[in-house]
């Protein structure tokens, strides 16, 4: 077994790539991994380390074929706010707006209900959704890429993450390692000051266009509560800007207004959303839908993007899409 170095010293991208190869290939002990992850998180990961680690994970994933223009929207998790599943709902609205979505996610590692938990509570068979991912993506424009099905190397890592119960570099690696090879994304992270660091990692890996976003209160998605740090990444470069809900013609609301619960609670809220229920949850989903439609190239205007998302709900298309997905993923 290999001994991991002290994480007090920053790694080069090359060293991170090698060391995370050891970790993913089972060449180190669980205790060593836990210690290393905690130390790295305590002093904050660098863009070089994130990029190198993501490359190691990408090299070990099981890919799927995806239509041109496929996008993903997800948060890194670990923000501690335990909100309703915003990016899961965004995926349905974006797909119902004509943009294919390869939703990459997992069960909760440090929250009460991850995307997989909530979708399962809604009636989506996770195992079947994995088997039929390419089919549902091509026929319906949406799929769920259950991380455990596409990242077998993560099998021994997930129990370690759950035992630690805190965000680690693996929260950051996941969104950068979508098995559909998406080149357009909305990624929410839980640390506003960390947006440019994460954006630099994404730029090292390359992208057509990706938004990296964080609410000022540390929300791992665009927040209605106040301002948001946003990095607009294109190619191997990025620009920083500030974004607020009013740009999408949406009202402000405190984070508490979208507080979630267990999978059953979150699933009930998502069902109500798709039925047209108004309120902060709908507004938060529309804000993030607008961002995803912008990176997808469907619109360049925040208000228009939110309106497109609202129309996907109010027309019943998003609700029908979920029903069709559940029926096809058998």
Automatic annotation (TrEMBL):
<comment type="similarity">
    <text>Belongs to the anthranilate phosphoribosyltransferase family.</text>
</comment>
<protein>
    <recommendedName>
        <fullName>Anthranilate phosphoribosyltransferase</fullName>
        <ecNumber>2.4.2.18</ecNumber>
    </recommendedName>
</protein>
<feature type="binding site">
    <location>
        <begin position="85"/>
        <end position="88"/>
    </location>
    <ligand>
        <name>5-phospho-alpha-D-ribose 1-diphosphate</name>
    </ligand>
</feature>
<feature type="binding site">
    <location>
        <position position="75"/>
    </location>
    <ligand>
        <name>5-phospho-alpha-D-ribose 1-diphosphate</name>
    </ligand>
</feature>
<comment type="pathway">
    <text>Amino-acid biosynthesis; L-tryptophan biosynthesis; L-tryptophan from chorismate: step 2/5.</text>
</comment>
<comment type="subunit">
    <text>Homodimer.</text>
</comment>
<dbReference type="InterPro" id="IPR005940">
    <property type="entry name" value="Anthranilate_Pribosyl_Tfrase"/>
</dbReference>
<feature type="binding site">
    <location>
        <position position="115"/>
    </location>
    <ligand>
        <name>5-phospho-alpha-D-ribose 1-diphosphate</name>
    </ligand>
</feature>
<feature type="binding site">
    <location>
        <position position="220"/>
    </location>
    <ligand>
        <name>Mg(2+) 2</name>
    </ligand>
</feature>
<feature type="binding site">
    <location>
        <position position="75"/>
    </location>
    <ligand>
        <name>anthranilate 1</name>
    </ligand>
</feature>
<feature type="binding site">
    <location>
        <position position="83"/>
    </location>
    <ligand>
        <name>5-phospho-alpha-D-ribose 1-diphosphate</name>
    </ligand>
</feature>
<feature type="binding site">
    <location>
        <position position="106"/>
    </location>
    <ligand>
        <name>anthranilate 1</name>
    </ligand>
</feature>
<comment type="function">
    <text>Catalyzes the transfer of the phosphoribosyl group of 5-phosphorylribose-1-pyrophosphate (PRPP) to anthranilate to yield N-(5'-phosphoribosyl)-anthranilate (PRA).</text>
</comment>
<feature type="domain" description="Glycosyl transferase family 3">
    <location>
        <begin position="70"/>
        <end position="318"/>
    </location>
</feature>
<keyword id="KW-0028">Amino-acid biosynthesis</keyword>
<feature type="binding site">
    <location>
        <position position="221"/>
    </location>
    <ligand>
        <name>Mg(2+) 2</name>
    </ligand>
</feature>
<keyword id="KW-0328">Glycosyltransferase</keyword>
<dbReference type="InterPro" id="IPR017459">
    <property type="entry name" value="Glycosyl_Trfase_fam3_N_dom"/>
</dbReference>
<feature type="domain" description="Glycosyl transferase family 3 N-terminal">
    <location>
        <begin position="10"/>
        <end position="60"/>
    </location>
</feature>
<keyword id="KW-0822">Tryptophan biosynthesis</keyword>
<keyword id="KW-0808">Transferase</keyword>
<feature type="binding site">
    <location>
        <position position="161"/>
    </location>
    <ligand>
        <name>anthranilate 2</name>
    </ligand>
</feature>
<feature type="binding site">
    <location>
        <position position="221"/>
    </location>
    <ligand>
        <name>Mg(2+) 1</name>
    </ligand>
</feature>
<feature type="binding site">
    <location>
        <begin position="103"/>
        <end position="111"/>
    </location>
    <ligand>
        <name>5-phospho-alpha-D-ribose 1-diphosphate</name>
    </ligand>
</feature>
<dbReference type="Pfam" id="PF02885">
    <property type="entry name" value="Glycos_trans_3N"/>
</dbReference>
<dbReference type="InterPro" id="IPR036320">
    <property type="entry name" value="Glycosyl_Trfase_fam3_N_dom_sf"/>
</dbReference>
<dbReference type="Pfam" id="PF00591">
    <property type="entry name" value="Glycos_transf_3"/>
</dbReference>
<dbReference type="InterPro" id="IPR035902">
    <property type="entry name" value="Nuc_phospho_transferase"/>
</dbReference>
<dbReference type="GO" id="GO:0004048">
    <property type="term" value="F:anthranilate phosphoribosyltransferase activity"/>
</dbReference>
<keyword id="KW-0479">Metal-binding</keyword>
<dbReference type="InterPro" id="IPR000312">
    <property type="entry name" value="Glycosyl_Trfase_fam3"/>
</dbReference>
<feature type="binding site">
    <location>
        <begin position="78"/>
        <end position="79"/>
    </location>
    <ligand>
        <name>5-phospho-alpha-D-ribose 1-diphosphate</name>
    </ligand>
</feature>
<keyword id="KW-0460">Magnesium</keyword>
<feature type="binding site">
    <location>
        <position position="87"/>
    </location>
    <ligand>
        <name>Mg(2+) 1</name>
    </ligand>
</feature>
<keyword id="KW-0057">Aromatic amino acid biosynthesis</keyword>
């Amino acid at each position: 077994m290999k001994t991991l170095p002290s994480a007090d010293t920053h790694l080069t991208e090359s060293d991170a790539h090698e060391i995370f190869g050891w970790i993913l290939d089972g060449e180190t002990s669980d205790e060593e991994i836990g210690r290393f992850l905690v130390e790295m998180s305590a002093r904050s990961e660098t863009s070089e380390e994130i990029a190198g680690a993501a490359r190691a994970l990408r090299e070990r994933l099981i890919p799927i074929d995806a239509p041109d223009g496929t996008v993903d929207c997800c948060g890194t998790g670990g923000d501690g706010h335990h909100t309703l599943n915003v990016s899961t709902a965004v995926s349905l609205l974006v797909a119902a707006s004509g943009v294919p979505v390869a939703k990459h996610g997992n069960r909760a590692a440090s929250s009460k209900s991850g995307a997989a938990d909530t979708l399962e509570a809604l009636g989506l068979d996770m195992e079947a959704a994995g088997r039929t991912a390419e089919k549902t993506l091509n026929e319906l424009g949406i799929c769920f890429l259950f991380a455990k099905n596409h990242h077998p190397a993560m099998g021994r890592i997930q129990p370690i993450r759950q035992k630690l119960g805190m965000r680690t570099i693996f929260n950051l690696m996941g969104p950068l390692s979508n098995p559909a090879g998406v080149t357009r994304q909305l990624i929410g992270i839980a640390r506003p000051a960390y947006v440019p660091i994460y954006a630099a990692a994404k730029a090292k890996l390359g992208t057509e266009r990706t938004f990296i976003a964080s609410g000022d209160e540390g929300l791992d998605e665009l927040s209605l509560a106040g301002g948001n740090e946003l990095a607009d990444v294109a190619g191997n470069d990025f620009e920083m800007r500030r974004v607020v809900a009013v740009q999408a013609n949406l009202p402000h609301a405190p984070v508490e207004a979208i507080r979630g619960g267990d999978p059953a609670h979150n699933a009930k809220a998502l069902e109500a959303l798709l039925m047209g229920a108004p309120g902060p949850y709908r507004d938060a989903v529309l804000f993030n839908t607008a961002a995803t439609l912008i990176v997808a190239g469907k619109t360049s205007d925040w208000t228009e993007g939110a309106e497109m998302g609202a129309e996907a709900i109010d027309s019943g298309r998003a609700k029908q899409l979920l029903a069709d997905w559940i029926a096809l993923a058998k």
